[in-house]
Amino acid sequence: MKKLYVGNLPFTATEDEMNEVFGQHGTVHSVALINDRETG
Length: 40
What we know:
By secondary structure, this protein is mostly helical. It has one helix and no strands.
């Protein structure tokens, strides 16, 4: 399994959106999103 960092995403991005986009290229096992600019 590989990990992929994708930067510059909007803070409004959702796990479902990431699964939809990256799932076109293979199986997505997990998604971790930063939701708060101040605390990460």
